[in-house]
Design a protein that fits this description.
The complex is a heterodimer of chains A (480) and B (213). By secondary structure, chain A is an all-alpha fold. Chain A has helices at residues 5-19, 29-46, 61-87, 94-112, 116-134, 140-173, 182-188, 194-212, 220-227, 230-257, 261-285, 289-310, 313-343, 354-357, 359-372, 379-393, 397-422, 428-436, 441-459, 463-476. The longest helix of chain A is centred in the N-terminal third of the chain and has 34 residues, at 140-173. Helices cover 74% and strands 0% of the residues of chain B. Chain B contains seven helices and no strands. In chain B, helix 6 runs antiparallel to helix 7. Chain B is globular and about 50 Å long. Classes of the chains: A mainly alpha (480), B mainly alpha (213).
Chain lengths: 480, 213
Amino acid sequence: MRELALIAIPLLAAVGAFVWSKERTRPWLLPVAGTVHTAMAFWLMAKPPTLKADAWFGLDPVARAVLPMVSVLFLVCSVYAVAYLRIRAERKNRVFVTALLVLLGLLSLALQAQSLGLLWVAAEGATLMTVPLLHFNRTARAFEATWKYLLVGGTGIALSLLGSFCLGYSSLHGGGGGDLTFSALTSQGDALSRPWLVAAWVLLLAGYGTKMGLAPMHTWKPDAYGEAPGVVGALLAGGMTTVAFVAILRVKQVVDAAGAGAMTERTLLAFGLFSMLVAALFLLGTPDFKRMLAYSSVEHMGILTVGAALGGMGIWAALFHVWNNSLTKGALFLSAGNIRRAAGGRTVDEVAGMAWLAPRSARILVAGLLAITACPPFGPFFSELRIVRTAFETGSVWTAAAFLGCLLLAFFGLTRLVFAIVDGRPRAAARAQGRLFRETAGVIVPPLIFLGCSLWLGLATPSLLRETWDAAARLLSPRP
Amino acid sequence: MTGGLNLLIALAMGLNLVALASSRLPSVIRAAATQGMVLGLLPLLLEQEFHWMVGLVSVGTVVVKGFVIPHLLRRALRAANIDREMEPLLGFIPSLLLGAGATIGAVALGGALPLRPEHANSLLVPGAFATVVCGFLLLMGRAKAISQVCGYLILENGIFLFGLLLIRTTPLIVEAGILLDLTVAVFVIGIIVDRIQREFDTLDTRKLTSLKE
């Protein structure tokens, strides 16, 4: 029952934050809860609890392979959030802090959910909890982004519920007792009714794919990431998308066990490559550097999906990439948030010369750019290399070629935009704004830690992590 | 038993078309609310013996979908001082025709999919699919935020209808959780609608166009 603490700690902290009366000290609850949660998550990763076969909830190998990443992401973001909320002292932070903590609890619940129904309830709850986070800035643009997020995200989550019911009916029709845990569904094998199984896969992929931000269901992403505070963007891009990806992996396991593996692989491959292509094309066109991060996120969701489609070692590489992408994106979102505040603008027309106005943040942004575009020795290089190698080993040469082509296009798009805002002469309006912004330790150290994590994952991936990814990949893709 | 059940589902399917055809927002809200109440009665008809959890889900659905949500929507309507969907993105007649086509298609699809013997003669599956598609049409074909929320509600009603196929086997706690989530969702949507109204002085989502490439 130790794994229950991962959900209870943030929820208790959320109650604490809600009743806490001091605006100035309330944000400190975030790093406190984050530290306890991270310590707990790594302890459980090293000494995993035993999982009952029919449990609805528990730290199975898949949750064990990704949950500690969400903890680290939250912890580092929470340190930044303390500094951020001090800068934004004019806004009340009660709802913001509470919603962040509830979000952490629900993400932990969703990753550990072993039942289709519980997974859905947690994912839906987490979606709703991000709403107050997204419109924290209360601008007209923030409301527009929130409305689109609610409408697209709500429809996606509704489709995944319908898909969950279809999978349940598929099991019921095949003689199942209505047990919606993943282990029960997998053990039913090809007894699941095929037409209902296909319907369930399509709906669940569309539903959780929307949450993950796969093209063409990615339309909410640039708006939401563009308008949300950097911390929220980092948590959405690293935490929420991970939940949706894990959901797709778990459903894929059930559908594969029912003998429809060829279908899941083909559809995932198509969605993955299409997302990479769409993201790369938009990266070449967008003038806004916060929306750029959203398209980069769409691209990396495509990479994860291609990895999952390849199966076996591809899933291992995808889990590795979940860590790399989330932590590197953390550095990018937080440094981009600093630059946004220092420059007072968001497009290449308004922002230039940030190497002078916010030198430290600009350096972190450039380093983060190199990391996310898979330059060695950062982590993303190794996970993407592993995906390409798996593609070659399984004989999918065209997949590897398309994959590399999209990466190259995305590299052009990202570097074009990042160097446009870092180099050049600062605009006059930005100079006045830039003097108001100080690069204190509170806003510089957290993105640096993320960069350090990305470098560490690349140079010396801890053997404990490798072992958890091995176990998860073995569970999700039983073939040798 | 199946006769009564099918009658109520057919009523729900008819209400889909009412919602699609009406231009006045209060009638769309009323159609969605009536549909929610009709669906709330179905769990009681499906269960042979009374179980307190089923009763709770039933009462909860009727109260939330029939009274709480419509009340929130009507309040937003009064605040925004609007009554009609003036220029829908998809016209009323085309959307009605599409909705009717979807209903016929859903009946055909329900006949083609394999069903358990106890569901073979019921309209549950066709009703669910028809309601989901009509909800989608309303969600995508209208410009006013309130109509879109009604579309979302009808979409959710369709999913609820489908969930009834599993009511005997899946633990009801899941249904309760779903109902709770839905309540919160609509509550949140209501707040955002309110804020959009104050910020933009309109509930026309076509005005929400500053975010694009």
